[in-house]
Amino acid sequence: MAHGSRLVDLVQTRIDSFLDERSSILRSIGTDLEPLDEFSRRFLSGGKRFRALFCYWGWEAASGTGFDPFADGDARDLAPIVSAAAALELFHAAALIHDDIIDRSDTRRGAPSAHRLFERTHAEAGWLRRSDEFGTSAAILLGDLVLGWSDELLDEGLALLTDRAAARAARAEFNRMRTEVTAGQYLDILAEQSWHRRGDDEQREIAERVITFKAAKYSVEAPLALGGLIAGGSAPQLSALRGFGLPLGIAYQLRDDLLGVFGDADVTGKPSGDDLREGKRTMLIAVARERLASGARALLDELLGDPALDEAQIRMLQRTILDCGAVDEIEGLIEREVANARAALVDAPLSDVAKAELGSLATTVSRRTS
């Protein structure tokens, strides 16, 4: 994974240099904007960089360039794909900032979420009106700012491509991803608040649609396709990348759903059982509802989404979901989707190096603990 480690370093360097350029604009307006600079840097440092890695390996899979991460000159040749990978990380940060507002999450990666940081800034300064209202408003603006920056960074990278058809196709892919993930986010909040108007037989289908458009496409499939398009990949290559990316993206989110209920707070950076307090209508919950007797299902429905759930109630719900076999079924679904993803690579017209790295990433994202 030396290539991946080197790529992560290149992406972080590109993000830092881009933020340096944009912070000069903020500073020219006034010192009151320093929190926008500080908090944007905080949310754009570290992280697993899965989207950036998938973007790069989509490019390598289609181009077969055999990138040497330590060779002089390669970093210059990689400028378009590094900028695109960095743009994905900015887009992801913007999505997380907005997602935490929607979910009313207090933490992100073990630290305060953006709206809580702005809320604390307001309270410590002793400004007028409510700190929580200021925090929400300021974080929405920060998310919008970073979202706009992701477009700028992508365009800077695509401008370096001599293949203008590839640049246009990559831009169209990014635009589609942006629309799909926003639609998926809406479907997610709709599911949380309208599930009682839907039949029990619809719950799994609704959860599958949310997984596909809120997470699977934007986490894995779109980054792979973006990289492949920047490389000028052929239709069979793009089809193979998508055939690998969508099922792996579903497995990625199914693991995330398990971590949202059973994850170790010291590892995930979010309280254990947070999805239960937030009322997430995930595939895990849909499967549990199918398996539970009517009384237990009614209790799950009653408690799910109560932000005041105490630790004893969280443990009780965790045990209920575990004992009914829902976790085992989700683990089985993860295994099936990863197998589907691997099968898409077997005879794919992609570079052997990329196939091996993508196979390794499939293991990493489907078995992760945070």
Automatic annotation (TrEMBL):
Q: Say yes or no: keyword rRNA-binding present.
A: no
Q: Does Metal-binding count among this protein's keywords?
A: yes
**What is the name of the protein in this document?**
Geranylgeranyl diphosphate synthase type I
This protein's UniProt keywords: Magnesium, Metal-binding, Transferase
Q: Which domain of life is it from?
A: Bacteria
Q: What PANTHER family does the record point to?
A: GERANYLGERANYL PYROPHOSPHATE SYNTHASE, SHORT CHAIN ISOPRENYL DIPHOSPHATE SYNTHASE
Cofactor entry: Mg(2+)
